[in-house]
Amino acid sequence: MATPPENLKYTKEHEWIRLEDDGTAVVGITDFAQGELGDIVYVEVETQGQTIPRDEVFGTVEAVKTVSDLFMPLSGEIVAFNEALEDDPELVNTSPYEEGWMIKIKYDNKEELDELLSAEAYQELIGA
What we know:
alpha+beta; 6-stranded antiparallel sheet; 4 helices; about 35% strand
């Protein structure tokens, strides 16, 4: 399992968040999460263009043996979905922090950023 990148923030639901300079955030699932799920065969996000509160479901990820909900790490509008995942969902397995990103959010509550985990705190959470 890869060490969680220091430049990202994390949630207890095993999502990572990369804050961009333009007020958006890129979201995906962690290497730990993809490893627990196994081979990912489908990523479904039908909420693009919607504003969704933090901790609400924005989509699902389907692996060979299970389906798991994806939770919003920050309140905001989903402004993009990684369409490469439609043809190549296993990018989440092979490149969870780069090519396997899932959505981009235009977040609207900067105070929620303080509740995200650092890489060190996330490592403690997963016992790494």
